[in-house]
Every structure is written in C-alpha cells, then in structure tokens.
Amino acid sequence: MLKQSLINNWATAICEIAKEENKVQTFTETLEDLSKIFESNEEAIIFLSNKFIPLEKRINFVDDIFKKEIDVLILNCLKLIVERESFSSVNYILQSTIKKLWESLEIKKGIVYSTIEIDKKFISIMEEKINKKINQKIKLENKIDNSLIAGIRIEVANNVFDYSLKGKVEDMKNSILENRK
User: Which GO terms describe its molecular function (predicted)?
Assistant: First the structure.
C-alpha cells in the first residue's frame, strides 16, 4: 500500500481536475462505480499492479475495459496510476477522492446497517428523509450487521437513527433500569 500522503496527493489531484472541468458530480458517480468494480474484482488490481507484466499491456487493458465507459480524464488518471506503479492502492485512492469530492459538494457520508442488503431505491428514500431531518445532503452506504436482529440503524453526521429491534430492546432495558431508581 502507498503511504497515506501519496494516496492523499492522488485524491487531491483527481479532485482538482474534477473541479477545474466542472465535473464534480459526474466524477463522483463514476469513481463510486469504479470503486465497486475494483472491490469486487481483486484480480484486476493484481493484474494492473504486476510489474512483471509489460506496462503497455496493462495500459491497453485499462483502455479496452473502460475507454467507452468513463470520462477520458478519469481514464487517463487510471492509466497514470498504473504507470506510476500505484495501482495496488487504487481502492484507497478512489475512496479518498470520493470523500474529497463529497466534501466539495457538501455531502456527508453515512452508513445504513441492516440484516439484509437494501435496494438503492429504498436507500434514496432514506437519504431524502434524513436530509430533511438534519438539513444536510447525505450519501448512505449499506452495510450488513447481523447483530441488529431486524430493522435498520443509520449513522450519519454524528447522528444515530436506530430503527432496529436491538435498539428497541436496549431502549426498553434502559427505561426499566431508570424506573427502578
């Protein structure tokens, strides 16, 4: 893995390109998609990080896969990351860049914990409702937490919204303990 300062430098550079080209929103969406692709395809990262495979072959691979799918500026950033032998840290670079882009869009990241995966439509509805409650743009990510038993728990911008069975049981427990005093 690259040093954190180098990851931050990559993220800052990509973020600056997005701002200069007035493409912050599209860069954010594309980088989120790329992040998911690389998280689920570790083989691609291994291939693109392998110094024993000729650089030209790795660059051509990036071109073949992404040329028609993503903005040429992002494509060139990916190629440069390969060229500079930094691709083993691509997920960290992407996450750091996304975080910086969200900050520039004044979007707070949050997590929806659930026992099963939640579809994107329902997450969008939750984002809108929480946005109205805390008066901030938010972007929610779904993570599985089997300890919840049922329901969901949302953590965003130093707020916790607990709609889980586990949370309700904790509330009842605390209420009973308070009434004993």
Answer: proton-transporting ATP synthase activity, rotational mechanism
CATH fit for domain 4-104, picks 1.10.520.20, 1.10.3720.10, 1.10.287.110, 1.20.1740.10: 1.10.520.20
Q: What are the pLDDT digits (tens) for 140-156?
A: 888 888 887 788 888 88
User: How far are the Cα atoms of 18, 74, 80, 82 from residue 69, in angstroms, in the given order?
Assistant: 17, 10, 17, 18
Q: Is residue 139 a contact partner of residue 108, using CB atoms and an 8 Å limit? A: yes
Instruction: Report the pLDDT value the prediction gives residue 48, as an integer from 0 to 100.
Output: 92
Contacts 24+ apart (CB under 8 A), 94-97: 94/31, 94/34, 94/35, 94/38, 95/35, 96/7, 96/8, 96/10, 96/11, 97/10, 97/11, 97/14, 97/15, 97/27, 97/31
pTM here is: 0.70
Torsion of CA 36, 41, 46, 48, to 10 degrees: -70
Q: Where are the domains of the chain?
A: 4-104, 107-180
What are residue 141's phi and psi, to 5 degrees? -120, 140
Burial class (CB in 10 A: 0-12, 13-18, 19+), 168: middle
